[in-house]
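User: Hi! Is it possible to get a structure for several chains at once, not just one? Here's what I have:
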Amino acid sequence: MTETMDDISITAPWQERHLLGLEHLSAEEIATILDLADQFQTLTEGGSKKLTVLNGTVVANLFFENSTRTKTSFNIAARRLGADTVDFSASGSSLSKGETFVDTALTIEAMGVDLVVCRHRTPGAPHLLARHLKAGVINAGDGTHEHPTQALLDMLTIRQKLGRIEGLTVALVGDIRHSRVARSNIHGLLKLGARVIVCGPATLVPRTITQLGVEVAYNLDEILPQVDCVNLLRVQFERQRGAFFPSIAEYAHLFGMNGDRIRKAKDGLLVLAPGPINRGVELTPEVADGPHSVILNQVSNGLLIRMACLYLLAKKAGK
Amino acid sequence: MTETMDDISITAPWQERHLLGLEHLSAEEIATILDLADQFQTLTEGGSKKLTVLNGTVVANLFFENSTRTKTSFNIAARRLGADTVDFSASGSSLSKGETFVDTALTIEAMGVDLVVCRHRTPGAPHLLARHLKAGVINAGDGTHEHPTQALLDMLTIRQKLGRIEGLTVALVGDIRHSRVARSNIHGLLKLGARVIVCGPATLVPRTITQLGVEVAYNLDEILPQVDCVNLLRVQFERQRGAFFPSIAEYAHLFGMNGDRIRKAKDGLLVLAPGPINRGVELTPEVADGPHSVILNQVSNGLLIRMACLYLLAKKAGK
Amino acid sequence: MTETMDDISITAPWQERHLLGLEHLSAEEIATILDLADQFQTLTEGGSKKLTVLNGTVVANLFFENSTRTKTSFNIAARRLGADTVDFSASGSSLSKGETFVDTALTIEAMGVDLVVCRHRTPGAPHLLARHLKAGVINAGDGTHEHPTQALLDMLTIRQKLGRIEGLTVALVGDIRHSRVARSNIHGLLKLGARVIVCGPATLVPRTITQLGVEVAYNLDEILPQVDCVNLLRVQFERQRGAFFPSIAEYAHLFGMNGDRIRKAKDGLLVLAPGPINRGVELTPEVADGPHSVILNQVSNGLLIRMACLYLLAKKAGK
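Assistant: Yes, the chains can be modeled jointly so their relative placement is included. Here is the combined structure:
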């Protein structure tokens, strides 16, 4: 109950006021976040689950897209650090009364908010906030652009389970075109020295993505034997009005993870999925509930990653 | 501000990890909850209203049916014990993105939730959670099955006002067929030695209910002179599409509590109602606001009962 | 972290159990609130942002009209004092199940709520609550009647920026007819010795309002040179179905604040707006973001005013 900032050590100096994406972070900065997350695990498992280091800090969740899971993860993370949280949503907010997005954010900041966690359907929305606010801004997903804390929790899970990220081969499978999770994972994994293969239907894997430094594959079975980790992106029925693949059944057949594919893969294959999962689509129940799946570890690590990011930005803001 | 678990004594050893219903609790276990609720009343009235015994514990409200009142009661109860709370609702949650009910719950648990309070329209839903979660599960109403904390607060109110439950005659009036409140009250009251009469329109009082050990009556005026407590179940307009009784006016005339009926009843008759009440239907304003009504005591006792249940399950979970 | 009530001094004895409007407060009582708000600014800026003086107090937000901004301001204010908060909204509440407004409030109070913050479309709704509840009631806007904390934060902002209120000339511009903000400002400003001019389209400025002691004007340009502060009421598109003025463009032309009008006004003119603002309607971006605008100060002061009001009522209630 009386941990202080002194008990928490940060591997390398932290200079960022905002966490907008992994594209512009260095390998050292990413490692700093992962190390701090590990440290929060030790701290909260060893003793009290609730710290007091961010007592008096107010974190606002500014979610313009529905996301119970990410919002709750940020909420619990903030409160574990001793911070208070307030939630804003698009419906019922001042935006529906004609206020601009930036005015809404400035108003929230003027209420004494120190950190803003923002999800928005428009790529760059959190960057716009960061330019106008003194508060620290965390991007919790901006359209098809980035979702840095998701990629960080994926990397933390891999590092915990396999001991390292450098030198591993990670396959991102599914809708690469629209996935902010894929984009953030690509930036983060490459910076930490992994080999990244993106794999999915040709309609959902743009050739141009090789410019980022990844390899492209259209046949999951061909790449599986080389792969240490497979990250199964969600088929977002609610987003994809257009028909990017013929049918769900065909998608599941070609790109879904199932028992057969597990048996053809490396022994220690890690199966990640950002969730919420569609059982029978991205993976079968046999895989989801099997020993290769680290899906629930990802959720728990999400808490630790968000604690680390909130802590670093709050400290940078002088809290 | 510095009460510890040592200040709180539990009458009998508590072994249950979950609170799913009163059907499978013993009389001793029910008494343990009621005793602990009394103790919380003394503790919070005497000194500070806010305890710290569940500091670091996270309670998730997983409500798939609207219920501001029950959810708020659990929220305030949890925070009085020093716990943090997070709310989930069906709308906007991952369920609408195709996730299964159990996956949603496992995800919430992986975020570090210790206790899950669940309301669901399907009987048995909290039992399904209990089979999959390490977290403690409290049933806050599952379809027409059970609503144990409501029955416990009814019993606490009776015990506080009349000094005992054993030997009393309690009438449950109204829609017995669809009422989880009736079912939980029946189990609890019988275990504690009360005589229970269920009374309502024949369409809403199934004959088979006598198998549980209760008596059945269709005429409220005939049984009133024998009754110590009458519990007026809510007419749930929002649930009953079918016509189980001819009209609201007729229901109120035959089964509503009014001044005339009060005058024909025992002197110290207690009038309970789970609420929200429909004035002029289950009871007249004269009765609702009169000296026999203990409706607001029930609400206050709801807080104490929920504190007791949360505390017992958190302690069992080793928090 | 360990401020106590002893550190907080109140200028004059406080006797009110509720804050329903400024009409019935004395000048001394209003000054007491403003002084206490100033004090909270010093306390929270100097040291820890979070106090503990209302630890154990529960504040319920009972909002029957959407208002993220006011509700959040009350929430943050309450938590800065160490209180817990619970939110109720019209949708999903017991009201939709047939419960009366007063029964809902009594139920909430029975759950241990100490202070109720109420917004309602019906003038007098908070007064009805105040007659039935032991809890303190704060009016957060009742129809077209009053919105006392908004007027108080406007006055605090004026006093901070100009050093006094007595002797100043304040223009309230826009829809005076439907504005609870105007009404509360009129009462408060007149009590503290300001001269108040209301100005707007004839359809929205009833002649009878002079009975309150204000002057009426229909031409903003004529009065501007005499004015120290101009408070630009929101054009409430969502409320005004009827056509009170020909077009938005015409409104902006005649009553909107713009660079030209700023240049014709007094040098130190203060521009207030309760927000959320419609850029290009009540004021141009040039004015909103310019040196005369104190809009964001108003938001920050809202927090301090609400802390002061919650504190005074909680103390009066013996918390």
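Residues 279 and 285 of chain C are 6 Å apart (CA to CA). Chain C has two domains: 5-146+300-316, 148-298.

User: Great, thank you!
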